[in-house]
Amino acid sequence: MLDTDTKRRIDSCRDILVGKVPDPKSQVEQITIALIYKFMDDMDAQSEEFGGKRSFFVNGFEKYSWSKLLAPSLGGQDTLNLYSEAIGKMTENTHLPALFRDIFKNAYLPYRDPETLKAFLKEIDGFSYDHSERLGDAFEYLLSVLGSQGDAGQFRTPRHIIDFVVQAVGPKKNDRILDPACGTAGFLISAYKHILRENSPIKEQNNWQMQQGASVAETSIESPMHYSGSLLTPVERQRIHQNIKGFDISPDMVRLSLVNLYLHGFRSPLVEEYDSLTQEDHWQESYDAILANPPFMTPKGGIKPHKKFSLQSKRAELLFLDYIAEHLSPIGKAGVIVPEGIVFVGQSAYVGMRRRLIQEKSLIAVIELPHGVFKPYASVKTHILIIDKQFAKSTERILFINIGADGYTQTDTRQAVEDNELPSALELIENFRRGKLEDTSQISRPSFIMVSRENILASAGCHLVGRWYMLERTFQDLRKRMPGAKELGKLCYIHRGRHSNMNTPPGEFPLVVPATDRKASVDYSFDFKASCIPLVSSSGHGKADIKRLHYQEGKFALADTMCCLEAMNAEEVEIRYVHEYLSKFKDELLVPMMCGATNVTLDENALKKILIPLPHIDEQRRIVRGILAKEAADKLSAIGDEINFGISSSEDVVSEIRKQIGKLLAIQEVSPSLNIS
What we know:
This protein is an alpha/beta fold and about 675 residues long. The protein has 23 helices and 22 strands.
């Protein structure tokens, strides 16, 4: 486990470099090169200590040894010149393993300040290792603080999410394992850790636990070397190393992943610079377990994949999913993180991909993650698709799980909290595989539902949005408890707003917008009593949220990011009653309908299936009267407090206000309450 001093030194190295090397990825590269440099010298020193010979800094490269570099007699500029020359020539050192020479390929010092370099090397000199395990811990932590990995929709996957995906998939010791967009090899390291753990004595397995109170960055430091894997034979261990493979399009990511795997015991790690979507060299290969968080962003003009893809698309996320499905063996399993668009977008390529996963009996579970998993680097909404071709043949249902909390706050700081539904989700998946999961539960945390493949194939667009299926189940339950309830689409007309929120010329008519205060418009579109509903999330990218609905009467304009409801029959339904009902239960009824990976929106047509309990029109009005009385009482109470606080000799006024508050509360007391059931 990462010790405090090692973590401090990594942070200090980054602090030293940040003034000269502001880019986080470049900082990681500079620290990586220096750590490997020092590590090689440590191994040479250890060899001499045990009576052997130096093997790295030999045959003319002795002058670059770490002790020469940090000699007290060497001036600042001389140190800079020697270090810069050393890292530039290290690829010519034939005594280095090919992997190490690759690490130093194109290496250079991006600044020329001797004082910065001296301070940096002094901090690196504090790292002293007799085994790569501790260096592996340090490197894992270093990678964890690497945030954005590029401009192609690549964001570092938090370690606890990686570990969750790996445990949900459950790779085995004989599995051929691939990550087709491996980044820094996080999934591959976690898969190795999982296999070692599963092949260690039970007592050793149970001693492992996530470090409590750690930040998201620090959850990446549980080195797989902490599990002995002592139940594995030498042949099995060698086979595991040969079976774990990664591709990445970025040479920088390949370099980092090679180092990461090497420092975790892989002497010949199998990671290649390879574009899984445009190159064909490895197309015929198949794997037993594929683990990935592929890039979500598609470059301008789209991806131009090779001809072997069965899917006709230029979207990166779709092509990666097709690649994964295509390259699984007959017993293959996969865990892939996808943007929310994959599970609901109605374009033919998306629908076709979802239909294929269902009809081919490969998909077994869809896990919805909280919107803040990738903060602070992105607020993209994501899901995890779990594929298990062997198990899928034994069940006709798909498990949907909605994770509400992942053990960290949903803020940019992502601090650890106790609220964590991931372990329970793993239990649900395990019980599902064992056939021991009850039909459905929205009361449990996390909420989940099992849906038949037949129902999914019959759904609009063959969607894979678990919360929509949960909402449908809620409506089914409500129909049983409220036989008189009616669908909103049979009670109200639904109109889309027509006015620009920002560019409508002001005038005499109210312009209803999602914000608290209305604007003004030179003209109007509607003239009736209406409940106005926002169609765009109020919380920015990634999160579904509606802060408020607006009630409006008379002539008004409506922003084009909203819709409004008009009663079909004013003698059957009081629109203010519908408005109050939807306002009170918006989080249960409206928010789950919203969807989107980044821009989260609500389809106004989806509102039609919401069930509204429909008492007699007179009772609807009594309910509304009670709600408005309570609101008026609250406003009067605030006014009374303000008068009492700011105006002397106001006792009579305040007393009269309190009498009116009492009358209003009496009206509320005798009015029927508003309930979802």
